[in-house]
């Protein structure tokens, strides 16, 4: 069956959100309200911020304002790889923050452990499975990178297993694999929409007032409190936390650091047991390949395969539009790559195809800050690895809003911002040139041209 045929009946919406278990949205804000803390955004950043603010101080009056439905954006439509890494992978963290990477890795693992214990404590069922992740090489030039990852982790006391061709194929059998690394502890798989919905329920149980379909149109300071205007009401809050991801930010200065990048995903029908047995995959690990343009893939709890990544698309001008959630050229490319990776699955069909926006920044990992005399805090820029790291970002925002100096707020990573993107139209030109150079590097055994080497020298780049 051709990739086009395998895609023919695929629904054009996110599988995770397209289920009868989706909860009814909570009513929007009408009229005026006051709060000690107003959280803007109902993705993982906002949900964890609201939840943990009540855990820190149950007497705090907290509202959460979400423009559409909780979890409808990146948080409910992603791959569900919940990683310990706070730095978009160890290599990126080691390059940027060599002096504090040991601390960042430890804090990241503690963060993942705390996610796991929080879900257990509140009974959030989101098919959480701490399977780890296999990172596989599909071309010879990628193998040294795997060795580097293992030795880099070992220098921090973290054990990753280096698998040769036979060993990696004994785990997940693709003829394209040449070797792999198994990070057994550093990544869990989650059902992202059920995680978002579960966190929403916990927030409500803890007393957070959650308002959906309540976009915040503007923010201003009346001297004493911050005022948030929404279509049918206004919140006056002592403190504000912004968790608005890749969307146009309420604080203009964030526009310099963020670009919305579209990432695309396919979901298959459930794989019959006999077919799945041909691949193995008994460990149910998440899998990622190692080119600059990488795929990520995993099993769901009913043994569908989610298959995403590769193209990271920036629309000139940083435009965000609903129609961009669909991109047939990318879906066909992804389907072709899927059957090249798993020829055993020839004949399998895709049931869903979708895209979503990632909040990319030039250092590929979150940045943080405050405004209005430290009465507002923000965290953004997770660049495609925020399912786990958003909880860390939420903790940073709460530390900043409480004026607490902690191990987190002392980090260089927290105290310093990424290099800003240039303004448009130069921004579009630079990003498209970089995307082209990255694609060329993958076609030429990873060799980086003069442009990419220049960006590397300045510690900036483009990723998903
Ligand atoms: C296709 C795809 C696959 C991905 N796969 C992975 C993965 O496997 N692992 C991983 O770690 N990360 C992955 N990511 C990234 C991850 O999903 C994000 O890093 C994370 O969900 C970011 O959460 P957030 O809360 O910061 O942003 P979002 O989930 O985007 O939430 C922001 C929310 O703010 C709301 N909002 C914005 N402006 C306003 C306003 N003015 N008023 C009110 N509300 C507002 C929006 O409606 C939205 O709900 C993926 C992302 C995509 C798109």
UniProtKB/TrEMBL annotation:
This is FAD-dependent oxidoreductase. It comes from Microbispora bryophytorum subsp. camponoti. The lineage of its organism: Bacteria, Bacillati, Actinomycetota, Actinomycetes, Streptosporangiales. It comes from the Bacteria. Residues 36-394 form the FAD dependent oxidoreductase domain. InterPro entries: FAD-dep_OxRdtase (IPR006076), FAD/NAD-bd_sf (IPR036188).
């Amino acid at each position: 069956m051709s990739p086009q045929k395998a895609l023919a009946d695929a629904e054009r919406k996110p599988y995770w959100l397209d289920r009868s278990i989706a909860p009814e949205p909570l009513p929007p804000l009408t009229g005026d309200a006051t709060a000690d803390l107003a959280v803007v955004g109902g993705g993982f950043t906002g949900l964890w911020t609201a939840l943990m603010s009540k855990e820190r101080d149950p007497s705090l009056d907290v509202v959460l304002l979400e423009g559409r439905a909780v979890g409808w954006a990146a948080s409910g439509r992603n791959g569900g790889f919940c990683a310990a890494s706070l730095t978009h992978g160890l290599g990126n963290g080691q390059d940027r923050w060599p002096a504090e990477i040991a601390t960042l890795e430890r804090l990241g693992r503690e963060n993942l452990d705390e996610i796991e214990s929080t879900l257990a404590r509140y009974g959030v069922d989101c098919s959480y499975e701490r399977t780890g992740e296999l990172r596989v090489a599909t071309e010879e030039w990628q193998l040294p990178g795997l060795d580097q990852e293992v030795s880099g982790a070992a220098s921090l006391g973290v054990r990753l297993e280096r698998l040769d061709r036979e060993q990696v194929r004994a785990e997940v059998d693709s003829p394209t694999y040449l070797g792999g690394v198994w990070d057994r502890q550093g990544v869990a798989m989650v059902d992202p929409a059920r995680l978002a919905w579960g966190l929403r329920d916990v927030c409500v149980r803890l007393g957070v007032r959650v308002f959906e379909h309540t976009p915040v149109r503007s923010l201003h300071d009346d001297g004493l409190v911050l005022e948030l205007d929404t279509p049918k009401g206004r919140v006056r809050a002592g403190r504000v936390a912004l968790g608005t991801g890749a969307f146009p930010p309420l604080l203009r200065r964030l526009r310099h650091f963020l670009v919305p990048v579209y990432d695309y995903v396919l979901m298959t029908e459930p794989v019959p047991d006999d077919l799945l047995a041909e691949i193995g995959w008994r460990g149910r690990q998440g899998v990622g390949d190692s080119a600059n343009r990488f795929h990520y893939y995993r099993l769901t709890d009913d043994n569908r395969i989610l298959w995403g990544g590769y193209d990271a698309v920036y629309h000139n001008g940083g435009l965000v539009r609903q129609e961009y959630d669909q991109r047939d050229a990318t879906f066909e490319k992804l389907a072709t790559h899927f059957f090249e990776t798993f020829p055993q699955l020839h004949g399998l069909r895709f049931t869903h195809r979708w895209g979503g926006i990632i909040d990319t920044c030039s250092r590929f990992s979150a940045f943080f800050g405050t405004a209005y005399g430290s009465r507002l805090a923000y965290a953004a820029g997770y660049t495609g690895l925020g399912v786990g790291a958003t909880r860390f970002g939420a903790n940073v925002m709460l530390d900043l809003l409480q004026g607490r100096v902690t191990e987190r707020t002392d980090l260089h990573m927290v105290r310093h911002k990424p290099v800003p993107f240039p303004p448009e139209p130069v921004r579009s030109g630079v990003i498209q040139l970089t995307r082209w150079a990255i694609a060329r590097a993958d076609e030429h055994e990873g060799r980086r041209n003069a442009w990419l080497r220049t960006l590397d020298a300045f510690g900036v780049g483009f990723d998903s």
